[in-house]
Amino acid sequence: MRTRVFLLIAIAAAAVVFAAARAVSNDYVFFAGYTVLQFIVLATAWNILGGYTGYVNFGSAAFFALGAYSTVFLHKTYPLPIPVLIVIGGAVSGVVGLGMGYLTLRLRGAFFAIATLALAVVLQTLVVNWDYVGGSRGAYIIRPNEIALIGPYIQYLFLLMLALAVVALATARGIERSQLGYGFATIRDDELAAEASGVPTLRLKLVATTLSGALMGMAGAPFPYYIGYLQPSSAFGLEYAVNSIAMPMIGGTTSWIGPLIGAILLGTLQQVATVTISSAVNLLIVGLLLVDFVIIAPNGIVGLVKDRQAAFTTMAQPPVFSLLYILNLLPMYFLTGQGQAAQSIDVVFWAILLFVAYTRGGLIGRPWLVVFPAAGALLGVAPVSSTTPVIGTLAAATSLDVTAVVLAAITVIQLIGLVCGLAPKPRLAEAPAA
Amino acid sequence: MSGPILEITGVSKRFGGFVALDGIELAVAAGERVGLIGPNGSGKSTLVNCVCGTLANETGSVRFDGQAVDGLTTHERTRRGMARTFQLPRPFATLTIADNLRVPLLYTVNARSGSALAPTALDARCAELLQLVGLADKAAKLPRDLTQVEMRKLELARAMAAEPKLLIADESMAGLSQSEVDDIVALLIRLNERGVTIILIEHIMRAVMKFSQRLVVLVSGKKIADGSPDAVIRDAEVEKAYLGQ
Q: Which of A237-241, A429-433, B97-101 has the highest mean pLDDT?
């Protein structure tokens, strides 16, 4: 019953999102939004197997590409409406997921992950050598410009992906609160004990691989229409594998909301980065955030909200603190001077720095530590920097340009902050450990 | 229910060149309390694993409740009424204590009866089991918040949640204090009085002697004694191989 309520709320939220996107009346919003939604579906799908059941899948791209290539195949043989293609793509990927599960689920841990990676490589090789779907040249899908009732075709695709995201999230949440969810969790925790408690582990793992694969395939099915020209390297792209792992990890893997948060956060950041800087910066941002989250919040944002103590404990170690402090300063250097939008990405890293300083400060009895990143953020992101007379004078005096002076100022302030966070103090010894 | 509930005939298991079990013959009558002892490495846990389906025995067969269970998976055996605890507690670390017990209720009791317990009945059953082992106030905690002793109690409660006909308790008392050992023994005896057949694997002789109606001794994968506890511990061979220095 509560699942039905959730579904209604999710549909309402989706309607609001769609209405809001239309209100902006800029097709780019739909292009960018489609990608974010697609990642919500992928991350949720990955999480059913990786988060709930504990089997790390590195081959997300393979399932995604299977859905996409099913569409390409059918586009050439017997064109069908996209909703039907989504179902077919899901079915194909689901069956492959089932088969892969049957062959590989006796493997555990790293070996399972390697097997999924191998699956992606094998499938990519097959597609590259299959001329009918374009081979290594790729295939063109000419999409109509308009569609009845909705208007621009991209809005139609956006709407479909929105619906898919609702389906994926409702499925994930439904699983979480069901017998199936308990079964998945026991597999993640201890398969031997699960069996001894009567859980049919192999069957449940097959359910998980099938469901996860099917949802990924469904996410991939409309992709050729979105991109217009599909080549193996884009369908099997590294970003799909990396993102579908990173997003749940950053959001939190134990509940449906984790992948949603992770996908919205990372997906949006990546879209902003792609437009303002370059698509190559994407992976750098993902990488940095992954390092941050693995250290600060191994259970993702959801885990951090539930249990902040863990973050405090890790910050007690000076090397961890210094690493995080320096790491999160780095983006500033390549984001400054890239325009206003790039600065908004920097805000995220400043926020993390603030959190790092806040926890470390609280831990060593120097709550004023947050002042340093706060000052840095103000100088770096807020437009006050260039108008401050001090900076202006300094720039004039040293005949450097304003951004360089600002960067230098921030660097100096942060170095002081870092030193203050590390310097021992007599009181430190008797400061409470937690 | 006249025949033995568990019948092990000629069960052997080898790991490479090491013979862990060598033609074990053992029959346990329904409602019996059997103690299984033996020095470390004598094959006690391997025998449990073969009985429960975690390991496959190379020869021989295991019959449970009148039917051969060879080739059945562990969860199928659990559903037929076999439950075990692990020597080292293996709780579901990310589930609360109450949810740890919910799993066997959902997957074994519900699957067996064919009619699902209502959510409220499930909650009540969890609470009752926790009360029984004295973990009622920890229901919402995670296993990592438990002590070793509590972990062992959880292990027992989880096995009991599956409503087994046969319970195999693999060293569930190691590390417990005397009074706690007495508690667990009393708990097991109470359970037995309700009709559950119990095999107790234990090193603590006081508990074994108090609990067992019959004692089986395993040494180097062979059964060397089987009989009334008093007779068995006086047996010269047992004394030499196990108790006597």
A: B97-101
Instruction: Return the number of other C-beta atoms located less than 10 Å from residue B122's C-beta.
Output: 18
Q: How far apart are CA A65 and CA A75, in angstroms?
A: 15
Top CATH class, A2-296? mainly alpha
* Threshold 0.80, pTM exceeds: yes
- Where exactly are the structural domains of chain A? 2-296, 308-422
What is the per-residue pLDDT across A132-155, written as a single tens digit (0 to 9) for each?
888 888 888 888 877 877 788 889
Which residue in the block uniquely carries the two structure tokens 């080549």? A231
CA–chain centroid gap for A17, Å, is: 19
Among B51, B92, B96, B151, most A C-beta atoms within 10 A, so best to mutate, is B92
In chain A, residues with a C-beta closer than 8 Å to the C-beta of B163 are none
CA-to-CA distance for B212 and B143, rounded, in angstroms? 30
Apex A183 CA angle, A178 and A186, nearest 5: 130
Calculate what percentage of chain A has a pLDDT beyond 90: 39
Among the partner residues A183, A192, A254, nearest to B107 by beta-carbon distance: A183
Residues of B in contact with A195 (CB under 8 A): 53-54, 73-75, 78
Closest CA relative to residue A224, chosen from A74, A418, A32, A36 = A74
Q: Which residues contact B171 (CB under 8 A, 6 or more apart)?
A: B87, B201, B202, B203
- Return the H-helix or E-strand segment holding B9: strand B4-15
The bridge status of strand A151-152 relative to strand B18-29 is unpaired
Q: Give the DSSP letter string of B185-208.
A: HHHHHHHHHTT-EEEEE-S-HHHH
Counting one residue from A and one from B, how many pairs have CB atoms under 8 Å apart?
A: 82
Looking at beta carbons, which residues of chain B come within 8 Å of A201? 75
Residue of A182, A192, A202 with shortest CB distance to B106: A182
Q: pLDDT above 90 covers what percent of chain B?
A: 41
